[in-house]
Amino acid sequence: MRNRILVLGAALVMAIALATLTLEVTLAEEPKEEPPQFEPAAHPDGGGGSEIGDPDELAGDIYQSSTQCNYASHGDDPHLSSSNDAVSAHGWWTVSGITWGCPEYADVEVQLQVWLCNVYNPNDCYWKTLNKSESRIRPGGGAGRRTTARILCSTSSEIGYRSIIDVDLVGQSDPDDNVYKSANVRCRPLAW
Fold first, then answer.
1. DSSP of 104-146, one letter per residue?
2. How do residues 30-75 score in pLDDT, each as one tens digit?
3. Structurally, what CATH architecture does the domain formed by 38-189 represent?
């Protein structure tokens, strides 16, 4: 009788061990869902272009009218900086005709964005802001009269970039006048 109990006990222990091992193997074989990984990518339309207002409606830099001032928001396409180690984008504003009624300064904000795509699903892409810069400047553009946003490069892979320029007149209400500029540039961002 004692031998039978030992045999049954040993069989029970082996059955439990086998069931546990089978459960561990089953759990280990279940595929784990990876979180999406996004990488910078070239924009599918090749970049280039300017937009104002709704990014889906193509337009150029146009003159806006605040309650007292006719002005225009401007920006250049994102481009490789002269040092070839960063992407830059600039924003500025100008006044149309008579400057009476226009403020001396405007706050100009430039956002520099990169086009990121899911490495497992190339249709899952979006714009991500990597740098934002704002300064209070006089109208005209050029040195000292523009706002600059920059992103450092790690390699020379072609990547889609977009800048968003927003001009807010100091002391006056003005319309929502974002200008969008985009281009593919041979500069993979150092960090995103």
1. S-EEEEEEEEEEEEETTEEEEEEEEEEEEEEEEE-TT-STTSS
2. 555 555 666 777 877 665 555 444 343 333 455 565 567 889 999 9
3. Sandwich (2.60)
